[in-house]
């Protein structure tokens, strides 16, 4: 769910894909648009922005790609044990997850309804802090505490699965990915026909949980990332001229998405588009990849994990205390974006990065505080 670029020594070769880092901020910006309260903008802007959750698909694909690049050879050769691997994954997510969850825990215990209206629950808290909340089809649970942390529950499942998936050959992995896509398609069709927008528990339809939150289905995007890594390692690249086209295609899909039934919109509709978008940006040497690899965007990409976790509570507080004096979206959007971004960069530098370094040094059994690999999700 923040990288400085893919700069990892694999054998004797050094791989640099720093544009993926800058792209993380672009994906986080799409998610930011979902939760921004569009009061004065037209329906067109609002309808496009509401589809920004496609940014999460980018993160999941990136996660599968990067873990394959960073860990596949080490796991297969036995250089990294399951214990070390999984502890390192926990060290990646936990510092920010726990820090951003604590205020919500406090507000729920103290019943500060103006800030956070959910009542305190030991069960919800325990599920959230152990990365299990997304397995429960109740919105008050999978959106418990800091709501965006639901995706970390999915990521933890992906991390656990990866250690075993990595043993499959590329051909078998492709078959598993295709098989799961068929299962998701059939499930979406059945839910559309027999359940529609039925709400079984919580505030959202069952289809919202099953196709947007449920880790067992969202791992499809993670698998796609693993498959794309195999293509990339084979030297298969798309022409750089394709990259601008992928932006047109992405925003066209976001414009058309409201007309797509929810089960398909949450699951398969965006998958071909975001897959093409991701893979096109693996082609280096183009103007756009150079832009995303610049130092300012690399920094923003590094801070994108913090940005993702703080953007929704940040917007909530800004709407409460600042929005009344700045009603215009044209003015309030850049102000709220700048404030949230600045806080995210600050949080990344003074807390996230040092905490991850420390935890990783303890896990590795040494006080090596060298800069950690930051191309992770």
UniProtKB/TrEMBL annotation:
Q: Where are the transmembrane segments?
A: 21-38, 50-69, 90-109, 147-166, 173-196, 208-228, 240-257, 263-280, 292-310, 330-351
Alphabetical keyword list: Acyltransferase, Hydrolase, Membrane, Transferase, Transmembrane, Transmembrane helix
Return the GO cellular component terms, semicolon-separated: membrane
InterPro entries on file:
Acyl_transf_3_dom (IPR002656), Acyltransferase_3 (IPR050879)
Please provide, alphabetically and separated by semicolons, the GO molecular function terms listed in this UniProt record.
acyltransferase activity, transferring groups other than amino-acyl groups; hydrolase activity
Where in the numbering of this chain does the Acyltransferase domain appear?
Answer: 19-349
Q: Name one GO biological process term.
A: lipopolysaccharide biosynthetic process
Q: What is this protein called?
A: Peptidoglycan/LPS O-acetylase OafA/YrhL, contains acyltransferase and SGNH-hydrolase domains
Identify the species of origin: Roseibium suaedae
